[in-house]
Specification:
29 strands, elongated, about 750 residues, about 30% helix, six-stranded mixed sheet
């Protein structure tokens, strides 16, 4: 099977895994070639270099057994393999490298995901790891390769059976899915109603989808709640620490070493997490409050790195968080020196020594002689350092501007419930076509404008007429704006059914945006059989009274696969197409012609002999054209033979030109027929006798009626000399000679008397 354009020409991991399950060991060889370097790199973090190959080979054997038994991964082969390397290594340690014989491999075999490594218990119980585990395996695979291992989409495309662009799009959606799953994991750990209310709205808060009142309530709660602030900060930046979160969760403490070996730096990940910690603490008070949750991840990652590198001491940048006043919520009064209680008013003229509360706060065990000097040693508030009487203004949190993908924002469906069958509009208010419904689902009480844009392929046209209810549309810009942003009306669109073209030509895309939220959805309109009156034309050819020349034309169009003409005609007509016409393959037996170039068919000449005067049906021909799913039919009734009074003359020779004076000679002359086929139907009365002619090139045939004959020639050069005898003279029908001449589409009839009434013979 040919590979579609833009698709990788190698099988993805999922296809190879399926083939292995069906017994194809060559497919497993391809998986081994793709992933054995990663397995050996992981093994080197666990055992000496000379044992790494054996450990990796054992892991490959375990995975093969799992696949043959119907288990193992479906898509994410790399992560499964690396986890198996870790598991096999720990099993070797537990067994003390002793070989144990067993007939029941099922008791030994288990899925890597069920393995328990105490080193990473904290990681596996974290919300990020749980969120990652809840994702579809296809999303896990693309996140592992792009975010954890840092591979480029072009390198990942063959593993997943996608294009590089497809990998990028899948990774984008997987990251958004991870954020949503991460938020859901945190909801399970929220205790208080107020925290639950805030956490449930953090996703919309990040996307700017809350009302003003809800935004204010969330901000106020985040100002006072360090835990929810941490959730908020981690939700915004969850992907930035994916390697440090996921590698230890799946690979244990060796995970960081595995990634460091891949990148060429031992502590690259630790430095990365340190950078994240600095970023989380350098901007604002609220950031510092929430950074406690981030620093837990940073410290855990550093400890894991220490286990690999043998370092005793963490990096200095995260050893000790800043000691300034980072944990003070915004809006709270600044802390004054401890010797002055917060309740003390600004000083007046009253001496500070009169305040009885200062004695117990200094040195109650001091000798009495030191008491008089205590007021001078104790810092006393002065007019230059008053306690603020008004709260410090709460810093305004900047409104997020980063676009956020919301896959539920726009949905395209068909009125019948979706699927491929076309739903054609047949009502008087809508032109015949295929109808879809665009549904926009915005956050509750959304006040941001809702705008959608429509783009469509070459086979489609703008699908709206005027402004549908609840929308204002601009056909030239290809956009529509909802009248009610909080609850946009469903938008029906009707496309004229396409009749050909590629899938891209028949696909339309709806892009929606409101505030920070955006989404797009696409649908392909199925090609539909239809009639196009402009497809087929039958044109008159050159003017010829003796032949009906017609030219059959088919309108050109790109991306067509086949154009066929079928001819049918009445009993007075015959097959009109010459052998091997240019640009066509024709068959008189099937009465069909097929164009050699479907996109631009050549003109096809058809030449009909003029039929005799008969019924219309006998003189009718029909051409049916089919171009893929488009069809058209044209017919024509050809005129019969036309009367031409100048066509025939019956001439009497003069005595000088009479070739036989013993008979009556009459020359039957046909005008304008030189070189043409001429047919003469001759009839006479009972007093006359028609003598067989001996004219060169003419053939005469007597019918059963003794007074009728037909003479013809295929190449008329001179008149036919007919010879007659007359038994009795007369002027009635018994002495009448009648000749009917026909040339192509013309005919004429003349009569004479023999012997004539004049004296001439």
């Amino acid at each position: 099977m040919d590979t579609p354009p833009g698709q990788p020409d190698v099988a993805g991991d999922a296809e190879l895994i399926a083939r292995v399950r069906n017994g194809d060991l060559e497919a497993y060889g391809e998986l081994y070639a793709r992933h054995h370097h990663a397995a050996e790199r992981m093994a080197r973090q666990l055992v000496p270099a000379n044992d790494a190959d054996d450990l990796a080979s054992d892991a490959f054997a375990k995975v093969l057994d799992a696949l043959r038994a119907g288990g193992g991964p479906d898509i994410s082969f790399r992560a499964y393999l690396l986890t198996t390397v870790r598991r096999v290594h720990v099993d070797r340690i537990r067994s003390g490298k002793k070989v144990q014989s067993t007939d029941d491999i099922a008791s030994y075999e288990r899925e890597p995901e069920t393995f328990d490594d105490p080193t990473v218990t904290g990681f596996e119980s974290g919300a990020a790891a749980k969120a990652f585990a809840s994702l579809p395996e296809r999303w896990q695979a693309v996140l592992w390769h792009t975010e954890v291992e840092g591979e480029k989409p072009a390198a990942i495309a063959p593993l997943l059976g996608l294009t590089a662009n497809g990998v990028s799009a899948l990774a984008y959606r997987a990251r958004e899915g991870l954020r949503q799953a991460y938020l859901q994991q945190h909801l399970a750990d929220v205790a208080g109603d107020r925290c639950r209310w805030t956490t449930e709205r953090l996703g919309a808060y990040v996307r700017g989808g809350l009302t003003k009142r809800e935004n204010r309530n969330v901000r106020e709660h985040l100002d006072d709640c360090a835990k929810c602030t941490a959730v908020y900060l981690e939700l915004v930046e969850v992907n930035s620490a994916l390697p440090a979160l996921l590698a230890p969760a799946l690979l244990g403490t060796a995970g960081l070493g595995y990634l460091a070996a891949a990148s060429g730096a031992k502590v690259g990940l630790v430095g990365f997490v340190v950078t994240g910690w600095k970023k989380a603490t350098e901007n604002s008070t609220r950031t510092a409050v929430g950074a406690g949750a981030v620093v837990v991840v940073a410290i855990a990652a550093v400890l894991a790195a220490m286990a690999l590198t043998g370092n005793d001491k963490p990096q200095a940048a995260i050893e000790k968080p800043p000691t300034q006043q980072p944990t003070q919520p915004p809006g709270q009064k600044p802390t004054v020196p401890p010797v002055v209680p917060p309740s003390v008013k600004p000083p007046s003229t009253q001496p500070s020594a009169s305040n009885p509360t200062t004695a117990p706060t200094t040195a109650p065990t001091t000798a009495p002689t030191t008491a008089p000097t205590q007021p001078s040693a104790t810092p006393t508030p002065t007019a230059t350092t008053p306690v603020p009487t008004t709260p410090t203004p709460t810093p305004t949190t900047p409104t997020p501007t980063t676009p956020v993908l919301d896959e539920a924002l726009v949905t395209i469906s068909m009125p019948s419930g979706g699927g491929s069958p076309a739903n054609r509009e047949t009502t008087a208010s809508a032109a015949s076509g295929i109808r879809f419904v665009i549904t926009i689902k915005t956050p509750a009480a959304n006040a941001n404008p809702v705008v959608i844009g429509l783009k469509y392929g070459a086979e489609l046209d703008w699908p709206l007429t005027g402004n549908p209810p609840g929308w204002t549309c601009n056909a030239s810009a290809g956009t529509c704006t909802a009248s009610n942003p909080a609850a946009p009306s469903a938008l029906p669109v009707t496309f004229t059914g396409p009749t050909g073209g590629t899938a891209a030509d028949r696909t339309f895309t709806v892009s929606a945006k409101t505030g920070r939220l955006y989404d797009d959805d696409s649908a392909t309109v199925a090609a539909q059989p239809s009639t196009d009156e402009n497809l087929l034309k039958i044109l008159d050819g050159k003017a010829d009274p003796d032949v009906h020349h017609r030219i059959i034309t088919v309108a050109p169009r790109t991306d067509r696969s086949k154009v066929t003409l079928k001819l049918s005609y009445g009993s007075e007509l015959e097959w009109p197409i010459a052998a091997n016409p240019a640009g066509w393959k024709c068959s008189s037996s099937t009465k069909t012609c097929t164009a050699s170039n479907p996109d631009r068919p050549a003109s096809l000449p058809a030449n009909f002999d003029v039929p005799d005067d008969s019924s219309n049906a006998a003189r009718t021909f029909t051409v049916a054209a089919t171009a893929d799913l488009v069809s058209d039919t044209d017919s024509e009734v050809l005129p019969a033979v036309q009367q031409d009074e100048s066509l025939l003359q019956i001439l009497t020779p003069t005595p000088q030109t009479d070739p036989n004076p013993f008979v009556y000679n009459r020359f039957l002359q046909v005008n304008g027929a030189s070189g043409r086929k001429v047919t003469l139907d001759i009839s006479w009365g009972r007093n006359l006798v028609f003598l067989p002619p001996w004219a060169k090139g003419w053939t005469c045939d007597r019918t059963s009626d003794i007074r009728r004959a037909t003479c013809w020639t295929n190449n008329y050069t001179k008149p036919l000399n007919s010879e007659w005898n007359a038994w009795l003279p007369g002027t009635g029908s018994n002495n009448a000679l009648t000749v009917h001449a026909r040339v192509g589409g013309r005919e004429d009839t003349d009569s004479v008397q023999i012997p004539p009434t004049s004296s001439r013979r």
